[in-house]
Amino acid sequence: MKRTWAFAAMLGATLLLAGCGGGSTVSNVIDTINPLNWFGSRSAAPNMAALPELKQSIKVGTLWQANVGDSRRDIFSPALAGDSVYAAAQDGTITRLDVGSGKQLWRISAGEPLTGGVGAGSGLVVVGTGKGEVLAYDSSGTALWKTLVSSEVLAAPQIAQGVVVVRSADSRIFGLDAKDGKRKWYYQRATPALTVRSPVGISIAGGVVYAGFAGGKLAAIDLANGAVRWEATVSLPRGTTELERVTDVIGLPVVDGREVCAVAYQGRIGCFDRASGQALWGREMSSTSGLALDAGYAFVSDDKGVVQALDRSSGTSVWRQDKLALRNLSAPLALGHQIVVADIQGFVHFLARDSGAFTGRVATDGSPVSTNPIALPNGGFLIQTRNGGLYAFSIPQ
After folding, report:
1. Is the pLDDT reported for residue 173 higher than 90?
2. Is there a domain that residue 354 lies in?
3. 283 within domain boundaries
4. Is the pLDDT of residue 39 over 70?
5. Does pTM surpass 0.85?
6. Do residues 320 and 356 touch, judged by C-beta distance below 8 A?
7. What 3 state SS string does the chain have?
8. Which of 198-207, 354-363, 383-392 has the lowest mean pLDDT?
């Protein structure tokens, strides 16, 4: 096993040598802060922006809150399926809650540590481990099957059309039969010498799996058989050193209408035609968390803590909010007139969709928010913190 590198909290800071964890690692890895590896709960990064005073604020309601267990050094994102929320913790705990009330419906143990978020849908609940094991349960929490993939599973599996799609940390994507976990297909790309260790996942839409990769590539893969429909370049490596040339697609590709958009660390943001992979527009950008789309704009949290809105048709800048600098922001979530981002100290910030001005702020449990905000069916959203706090919030429509 080669050495694993941890990227100290502010991207661009010093690389620190870290011990190897569980699961096989196929390349040197930069451990980013997406918020992937925070300094620790309540701690402040050097030169992190102080929060501005808010003279007026929208009314943010707490629908419910629960604790689902500590995520430690990994990212655990909850999943919505029907009227339930599923969440997991590093110690192997998996919890099902009612989406409307937060009432715990059941809690089980996988019997071993987990390393990523939950996938849920079609009556299945799926999680992954540092040993590359994929564990499937039914909606009552009964174990169904276990399958081994090639490396640790950092991203939440996705389920669609009878296929469980799992991404391992060595850049392989597996299509597993939802009935028994048997492999139907897999897709593999060569990885550069140095890559970003992050829970970069996959998105599924219209029978196609969209996935970003190290080296700035974006691929569209047929869900049924794993055949490549097209590959596109989000960003090209630049620089003379291996570190300078790291340009990995981060977060989830976002699919909306005829477009799929993605952003890379030390690279670019780009939008592409879903059918052909033809580039529609691109511009210089570096992110460690990801992006969001609405009808008119693309929203990005860049690696310096600046939230940016870009015109969705051209990529031209609409506004920039730089008063959250170095606060290790989540990807944005677009909710009507509000843009939601969360930070290293557990604060959730609300920005005006058309101007980027601050409109509100709410605190959670003081620990770093360990997942991107997830929209709820009722117009609210869900946040999971590093310490295991699960919060459902509502905002004015």
Report:
1. yes
2. yes
3. no
4. no
5. yes
6. yes
7. CCCEEEECCCCCCCEEEECCCCCCCCCEEEECCCCCCCCCCCCCCCCCCCCCCCCCCCCCEEEEEEECCCCCCCCCCCEEECCEEEEECCCCEEEEEECCCCCEEEEEECCCCCCCCCEEECCEEEEECCCCEEEEEECCCCEEEEEECCCCCCCCCEEECCEEEEECCCCEEEEEECCCCCEEEEEECCCCCEEEECCCCEEEECCEEEEEECCCEEEEEECCCCCEEEEEECCCCCCCCCCCCCCCEEEEEEEECCEEEEEECCEEEEEEECCCCCEEEEEEECCCCEEEECCCEEEEECCCCCEEEEECCCCCEEEEECCCCCCCCCCCEEECCEEEEECCCCEEEEEECCCCCEEEEEECCCCCECCCCEECCCCCEEEEECCCEEEEEECCC
8. 198-207
Query: For residue 380, is it within any domain?
Result: yes
CATH of the domain at 347: 2.40.128
Domain residues for 363? 38-74+319-397
Structure tokens, 57: 């604020």
Instruction: Specify the amino acid at residue 316.
Output: T
| Interatomic CA distance for residues 95 and 180, integer angstroms | 22
**Which residue in 139, 8, 92, 42 sits closest to 369, CA to CA?**
42
* Number of other residues whose CB lies within 10 A of the CB of residue 275: 13
Residue 397: other Cβ atoms inside 10 A: 10
In this structure, which amino acid lies at residue 334? A
For residue 29, the model assigns a pLDDT of 57
What pLDDT, on the 0 to 100 scale, is given for residue 386?
Answer: 95
> How far is residue 338's CA from residue 321's CA, in Å, rounded to a whole number?
13
For the residues 367-385, what does the mean pLDDT come to?
92
Tokens of 256: 């909306």
The two structure tokens encoding residue 53? 């005073």
Question: What are 188's two structure tokens?
Answer: 């593999």
d(CA 86, CA 159): 14
> What's the distance, CA 200 to chain centroid?
6
Q: Please, are residues 117 and 77 in contact by the beta-carbon 8 Å criterion? A: yes
| Domain contains 55 | yes
Angle at the Cα of 238 (from 234 to 240), degrees rounded to 5? 160
Counting the structural domains of the chain, the total is 1
